Q: What sequence folds into this?
């Protein structure tokens, strides 16, 4: 028996358990094919954890994550909390606390287009064909984690946006290095015409650019970037941005790919890293076996890359591409002859297990 890895599995809420189950099938196929072993440890987070323990992030979950080599996560959130602004505990607090506790400072969200799916995007195929970029979103700072206040009479609220040079530099180094291995272009997305934190981002990235002469850097205000991403997405290679801007522009970017159900992400920390689809818990689809598992399976491929199993990660990506090319897709991408969540997972897992070559 080859090498063994500990994987913490947090299925979470809504469609989370269904899409994670398919990613686990694919990882099991990788075990067989590459003679490695994954030791999966399941733990609770989100609404399901509140229901069972009262805590969206129970201490045992943090411990399971800390002793893991990588974490696979599904989705978080439940409508019963969304419509109740007075709720004291919210599922999302679990994910935010986990990001902070594990120091998952860089969220990497690659956006790729598949020629066979171009017609499914609401954008014109000729505009998006060949779009291939990656968003580096800062994940443990900014307005998400700044001081929050609410006045005693409830009439006033504030959220502080704060960044240090250290926080900017550590993710910027990752983004510069990614650009070096890609097409050599880095776009900093900010609001430096208005925000002091954005001016600090710009100053820091400009100074750092001297260390990376092979990377061409440009700077774009976030409102303009939101527009350019739809108008001319092929201009981007690596986008670097703060926590909230990254949250927003990466959802926008999913329109280019054709479905939210296609985009994976990696959240990188010093000790361990977490892999999750960018989509949410999609409660309307929960339990129906219709959710698209591809984003989670692609997240599992990024997990494999992070364990230096890049060949295995590539195999998973090729297996996905081969099914998408044949229109073997869930209902979000193929309304006429859809595969169910589990059928698509089975198909991708068996391709991974059996494919001779692509
Ligand atoms: C995401 C999600 C989270 C975020 C929510 C669930 C807290 O939208 O991962 O993009 O805003 O970061
Ligand atoms: Mn989001």
A:
């Amino acid at each position: 028996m080859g090498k063994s890895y500990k994987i913490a599995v947090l299925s979470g809420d809504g469609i989370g358990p269904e899409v994670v189950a398919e990613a686990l099938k694919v990882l099991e196929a990788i075990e067989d094919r590459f003679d490695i072993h994954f030791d999966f440890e399941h733990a609770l987070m989100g609404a399901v954890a509140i229901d069972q323990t009262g805590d969206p992030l129970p201490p045992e979950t943090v411990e399971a994550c800390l002793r893991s080599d990588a974490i696979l996560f599904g989705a978080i959130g439940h409508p019963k909390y969304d419509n109740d602004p007075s709720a004291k505990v919210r599922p999302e607090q679990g994910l935010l606390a986990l990001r902070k506790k594990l120091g998952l400072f860089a969220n990497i969200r690659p956006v790729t287009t598949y020629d066979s799916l171009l017609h499914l995007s609401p954008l014109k195929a000729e505009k998006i064909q060949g779009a291939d970029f990656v968003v580096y979103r800062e994940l443990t700072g900014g307005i998400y984690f700044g001081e929050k206040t609410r006045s005693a009479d409830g009439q006033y609220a504030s959220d502080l946006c704060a960044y240090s040079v250290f926080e900017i530099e550590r993710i910027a180094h990752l983004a510069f290095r990614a650009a070096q291995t890609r097409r050599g272009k880095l776009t900093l997305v900010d609001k430096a015409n208005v925000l002091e934190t954005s001016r600090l981002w710009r100053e820091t990235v400009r100074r750092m650019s001297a260390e990376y002469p092979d990377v061409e850097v440009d700077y774009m205000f976030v409102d303009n970037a939101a527009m350019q991403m739809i108008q001319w997405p092929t201009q981007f290679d690596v986008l670097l941005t703060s926590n909230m801007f990254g949250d927003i522009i990466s959802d926008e970017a999913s329109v280019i790919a054709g479905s939210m159900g296609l985009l994976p992400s990696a959240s990188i920390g010093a000790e361990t890293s977490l892999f999750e689809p960018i989509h949410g818990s999609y409660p309307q689809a929960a339990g129906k076996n219709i959710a698209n598992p591809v984003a989670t399976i692609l997240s599992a491929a990024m997990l494999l890359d992070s364990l230096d199993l890049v060949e295995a990660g590539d195999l998973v990506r090729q297996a996905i591409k081969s099914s998408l090319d044949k229109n073997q897709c869930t209902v979000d991408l193929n309304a006429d002859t859809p595969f169910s969540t589990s059928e698509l997972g089975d198909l991708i897992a068996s391709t991974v297990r059996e494919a001779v070559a692509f």
